[in-house]
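In the previous chapter we treated chains in isolation. Here, by contrast, the input contains two separate entities that must be folded as one system, with a combined length of 759 residues.
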Amino acid sequence: MVTVLKQLKYAFTLMFHPFDGFWDLKHEKRGSLTAALIIVGLLCVQQIFKTQFTGFIYNPEYDGVSLNVLKEIAIVLGTFLLWCVANWSLTTLMNGEGSFKDIVMASAYAMAPFFIIGFPLIFLSNIMSEDYESFYYLLLYISIGWSALLMVSSVLVIHQYTLGKTILTTVLIVVAMAVIIFLLLLFFNLISQMVGFITGLYWEISLRFF
Amino acid sequence: MKHRRLTALLLMLLLCAALGASSFALVPHRGYSYDNNGIATAAPIPYSFEQEVNGVDYGIGAFTSAADLFVDQDDNIYVLDGKNARVCIFDSDLELVRIIGSAGEGVVGSEISYQGENVTFNAPSGLFVYEHFDKKLLYVADTGNARIVRFDMLGELDKKGSVEEACQPIAAETIYTKPAIDLINENAAYKPLKLVVDRAERMHVVCQTINRGIVKLNPDGSFNSFYGAPEVSYELIEKFWRLISTNEQLARMEHFVPTEYNNIAMDPEGFVWVVTKTIADRYIHDSMKTDYDDTAGRQEHAPVKKINSYGTDITSRTGTYPPVGDIASVTIEYERAGSGVNVLAQMQVLCGTSAFEDITVDEYGCYYIMDSLRHKVFCYDCDGNLLFQFANDGTQFGTFKNPVAIGTFQDDKVIVLDSIDASLMIFKPTDYGARILAAVRAYQQGEYQQSEDLWQEVLKMNSNNMLAYSGVGKALYRSGEYRAAMRYFTIAKNVEYYSKALEEYLHELIGNKFTVVFLVIVGIVLVIWIIKTTKQFRSFLRNGVKKVM
């Protein structure tokens, strides 16, 4: 328990020293998969809280009752998994040195600023009037930008790429994510058509002969 | 036995007749209002038809091509009867008091004299009554004769009673002929269509074929200036296409000329309101999508504008949608008879924005605009919130064939002049409409408690009315109940006022204690920092530099 807490606290060190941080994460075992999964869990909680408890001014569309917890969790897990899978499948082809476990760990730790700034912001947004709108969005964009930079540096350190290759790989990962989504949609569409065909066939036969 | 059966039949017939009579009270149009997503939701009927006034009933012959309508401060109704070349004036009890002008033989009317000569209107199309202190002047835009004729109405409206008395000859006070305008061709036609007169007796005239804006004439009839012409703006892509087109192509393209206004009105504060229906739908839709975060609410292509004397658009458009009448495409939810149960279905109707023919502004800044496309009347409050809409096209009582002018009458009634139906139609507010109007007025007069009560009553009649939630919220906000106000603004999705209420609420909560709260936070941070540094300092003393680093 104490070790997991220590591993979680490592996220703070990593935020400010990304290059050393990711290196130590992989080689010095300063973090763990458990801690990484806890961070992902926290991100899910943050997403749920964000939908439900963001102040009215910053979330006027939400009616206060139509929250779907499973949907919010699926959004976070889905995006995270999509990134990790696309990252892994691309970097194995491009001589990346990180394993899937490394990628999951590094990506989760990279999301730390998004949680650390974003989570308190949810509650702050309830007492921020429209005058503070710019501060709200400033903090939000800082959290997103910081996490994005950490993500890129995680690719650099985990796979031991040069800077140019890192940028190229990051762009390609995003493209790969789009391709995966496309393939999934295609797959589901074809499956549903096939299911429709088979059920149709079943009904035709059963109505004709029985 | 036989008799009894007959009696039963008769009774049934009577019942049917009674039911038929009660269906007279049904209104031949549907009420709806728009929610925050632009979806039309069912709403109670705000106005119902009360009475029709036509010339035949007064024995003065039917109105023919009636063109304009004006209601003065004493609720006298002036009807401009275009083809008969006369102005018929009715008082607030709808009795005929005066007829000015006549097209000639066979038309009931009076003779007009001016400096010893007979004057006849030729296709007049606009009129205005100037009332200031004890002056009462009637201006008629005599379009066909290219002039404006002015009458002094003092003492003219006391002749109550017979048609003969109403048809006494009258002398025109002044006739303003075509002014010398440097900026337009001398031979160009001058066709004054509609006009208003400001407090300084300057005439603001909308002229046919002049698209430089409103023509402002001095009290002596000489030209003063043009103002209020809408700016013509190209989009970048259009500029590009124009750049690469040949001259032949350019000639075939749409010409970008400023839109002409088709009507003008003056509100009690003396500001000029104009409406136009020549803006293409797509431009209106585009400018509806503009970001309303900047509270000026500027709308580039606005069919309705309140303009100041420089011609700047100063309309307040703080509503969810700007005042454009019907919103582009509308989804109406209705109950359809399904098998056994009624199912909720959706229907897309009414595509395209409204075409505004006339506008009238009441004492409280609420304005009624008439849509000549779907023959509806839209009412907005002074901030540009749609209060309600009513009326429809058709041939029943209370529906229009060709509405041309609108006016308010006896505080909250609405009069519409229909030129094909040749009649004035008077509408009176229903309980629902009257409460909305009363709530808006109470709020403007600072009667916040009363306004809140009225909006609550409106909500009981129509819980879809987002404006009512906002209204209750605003009244609560003004009376200092910020927490409750915030709840109502959340329902109405009124971010602007929610933010205001939140600020006040926090201020109330923290108030003067802000300094204390701030100092406590700073103190906590300081204590944590001191503890941390002493820890490091101690371990430095114990283990030397290496461990700390």
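The two ends of chain A are 64 Å apart (CA to CA). Chain A touches chain B through nine residues (CB under 8 Å). Compare these points with the single-chain example from earlier in the chapter.
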